[in-house]
TrEMBL record:
It catalyses: 6-phospho-D-gluconate = 2-dehydro-3-deoxy-6-phospho-D-gluconate + H2O. Binds 1 [4Fe-4S] cluster. Pfam families: ILV_EDD_C, ILVD_EDD_N. It comes from Pseudacidovorax intermedius. Keywords: 4Fe-4S, Carbohydrate metabolism, Gluconate utilization, Iron, Iron-sulfur, Lyase, Metal-binding. Belongs to the IlvD/Edd family. This is Phosphogluconate dehydratase. InterPro entries: 6-phosphgluc_deHydtase, Dihydro-acid_dehy_C, DiOHA_6PGluconate_deHydtase_CS, ILV_EDD_C, ILV_EDD_N, IlvD/EDD_N. It is an enzyme of class 4 (lyase). Its EC number is 4.2.1.12. Residues 71-386 form the Dihydroxy-acid/6-phosphogluconate dehydratase N-terminal domain. SUPFAM superfamilies: IlvD/EDD N-terminal domain-like (SSF143975), LeuD/IlvD-like (SSF52016). Catalyzes the dehydration of 6-phospho-D-gluconate to 2-dehydro-3-deoxy-6-phospho-D-gluconate.
């Protein structure tokens, strides 16, 4: 059918972003153009510099780099075998190097970046390093690429902070053509809904540690990303929508025979050696423009993706000289339909999503509805249209792509003309408690408005203790403060999901209000998160007291404490205690991140530590 013209709201939001970013974006593009206009590294650099750079590579590669002036690809890898999603990357560098040599090019592992698993650190002190690991990864990417010997780059990473960190780092080397290389999700194990039920039973003491461990091990059981649609898998959806992957690569499992073909195709892609041989892949800094960023935002909303990206993609855009905020997300959410139901927004996991049509189906539907910029440039010659397809093995080896539409399962992925919801999965909340966001796509309709007395907690541990003591058996809005970037690094508070779900399951009206984060796997309890400004910076959460009536209204888009205006204005704000600051800032490496806590911007500004 003929493609619908661009939706007026999409056009208006894009133009507003372009206008407010004009000065910053112009300076960014000028900078990368100047850097990109230099001679190749091995021609430009001193002989000793070049000798150091190639000392460890095989003789034939030295010849290619120095004498034959062949393209040299820098590989930045987030491999470690602590992360199931990243364990497959162990073998990737040799595969990439082999393919590069076949194409008359070379590749070097420029460097590695740290990659931590929030699933391991949830509820522990390590979680206080999680958000800032993103900027650490960005800096690690810069350290790797600053050897400045590369004509292109490949980024090996998948999970929560890793892809945003790699992308921020890559955009600071925006003159390089860059392709992101994923490894795919693990096979489905114990269903996510069954796992969540066992967690709730454990929170009530109905299941012991042995039973809980058995369930968790059955859910997380192999190499690949976790199968729920959290931050890691949202990353992959956004990479497809931005045209930074080999098309359709996101959710092919690590052990699938197609995976190595796709990995090799990443080399062909970044070198412009695909079917349309000779395509000059745009530098990533040019490719990631305002339209590309808006496409990513739309993809997030249409799939009910992770709330973490309301922080991460603000930082990503800023790295490309582009300014976005939560108003932009909110206005897009008003017109972008929810096209998927993937856990925690449904029962299917990402493997079920892929079988239904995956990212390709969503991208096709959004383009046809005029809700994506179909004219953007990508790392592929066919533009975004190539990303509306699914890869398959070709006869005799190799790859070919087939259309990802129509949906193979309308209970998981629906066309834009018949969505699960007419609006996106995220909502901006404003009021006298500040600005915050809520993931409404996973919250039952009858829980979109909650009005109840507040119970204030200074830590997630304090809330868990109160729950265990039976002190929360009532209608309650749990306010958890001192959880923002400047307070303690803004950890995810995913461990609060089971107890709050238990309370909601008993029929109580329950909500969470916090300046911290929830996991990309946020549950069905209404949660106003990322409250900004945060309490530690003098934000209004510091003025809330036990018993204050709080109204969270996801329909009207408001979050307010129902205290008389004059009383609220005169009320003194609490101050984070020295004991709490010490507890949240010392031990297990947290001292090393003190400077990041001091320098972090607000959540809505991306919690950046490098501005």
């Amino acid at each position: 059918m003929p493609r619908t013209s661009l939706h007026p709201t999409l056009h208006a939001v894009t133009e507003r972003i372009r206008e407010k970013s004009r000065e910053l974006r112009t300076a960014y593009l000028q900078q990368i153009a100047e850097i990109g206009g230099r001679q190749r590294g091995s021609d430009r650099m001193g002989c000793a510099n070049v000798a150091h750079a190639v000392a460890g590579v095989p003789a034939n590669d030295k010849l290619r780099i120095v004498a034959e002036r062949a393209p040299n690809i820098g590989i930045v890898t987030a491999y470690n075998d602590m992360l199931s999603a990243h364990a497959p990357f162990r073998t990737y560098p040799e595969v990439l190097k082999d393919e590069a040599r076949k194409l008359g090019a070379t590749a070097q592992v420029a460097g590695g970046v740290p990659a931590m698993c929030d699933g391991v650190t949830q509820g522990t002190p390590g979680m206080e390093l999680s958000l800032f690991s993103r900027d650490t990864i960005a800096m690690g990417t810069a350290v790797a690429l600053t050897h400045d010997m590369f004509d292109a780059a490949l980024m090996l990473g998948i999970c929560d902070k890793i892809v945003p960190g790699l992308l921020i780092g890559a955009l600071h080397f925006g003159h390089l053509p860059t392709v992101f290389v994923p490894a795919g999700p693990m096979p489905s194990g114990l269903s996510n809904s069954a796992k969540a039920k066992v967690r709730e039973q454990a929170a009530q003491g109905l299941v012991g540690r042995e039973g809980l461990m058995e369930a968790e091990m059955a859910a997380y059981h192999d190499q690949g990303t976790c199968t729920f649609y959290g931050t890691a898998n949202s990353n992959q959806m956004l990479m497809e929508a931005m045209g930074l992957h080999v098309p359709g690569t996101a959710f092919i499992q690590p052990h699938d025979g197609l995976r190595e073909h796709l990995t090799r195709e990443a080399v062909r892609t970044v070198l412009g050696r695909t079917a349309a041989d000779g395509y000059a892949v745009p530098p990533i800094g040019e490719l990631v423009d305002e339209r590309c960023i808006v496409n990513a935002m739309v993809a997030l909303l249409a799939t009910g993706g992770s709330t973490n990206h309301l922080i991460h993609w603000v930082a990503v855009a800023r790295a490309a000289g582009i300014l976005i905020d939560w108003d932009d997300f909110s206005q897009l959410s008003d017109v972008v339909p929810l096209l998927t139901r993937v856990y925690p927004n449904g029962t299917a996991d990402v493997n079920g999503f892929q079988q239904a049509g995956g990212p390709g189906f969503v991208i096709h539907e959004l383009m046809e509805a005029g809700l994506m910029h179909a004219d953007v440039r990508t790392v592929r010659p066919g533009g975004l249209a190539e990303y509306a397809q699914i890869p398959q093995g070709a006869d005799g080896g190799g790859l070919h792509w087939v259309p990802a539409w129509p949906s193979k399962d309308v209970d998981v992925a629906r066309p834009a003309g018949n969505p699960f919801s007419a609006t996106g999965g995220l909502k901006l909340l404003t009021g006298n408690l500040g600005r915050s966001v809520i993931k409404v796509s996973s919250v039952p309709d009858d829980r979109h408005v909650i009005e109840a007395p507040a119970q204030v907690f200074d830590s997630q541990a304090a809330l868990q203790k109160a729950f265990a003591a039976g002190e929360l058996e009532r209608d309650v809005v749990c306010v958890v403060r001192w959880q923002g970037p400047q307070a303690n690094g803004m950890p995810e508070l995913h461990k609060l999901t089971p107890p709050l779900s238990v309370l909601q399951g008993k029929g109580f009206k329950v909500a969470l209000v916090t300046d911290g984060r929830m996991s990309g796997a946020s549950g069905k309890v209404p949660a106003a998160i990322h409250v900004s400004p945060e309490a530690a910076a003098g934000g209004p959460l510091a003025k809330v007291r036990d018993g204050d009536l709080i109204r969270l209204d996801a329909v009207a888009g408001t979050l307010a404490v129902l205290v008389p205006e004059d009383e609220w204005a005169q009320r003194e704000a609490a101050v984070m205690s020295a004991e709490q600051r010490t507890a949240d800032g010392r031990g297990l490496g947290r001292e090393l991140f003190a400077g990041m806590r001091r320098n972090a911007t607000t959540a809505e500004e991306g919690a950046c530590t490098w501005l």
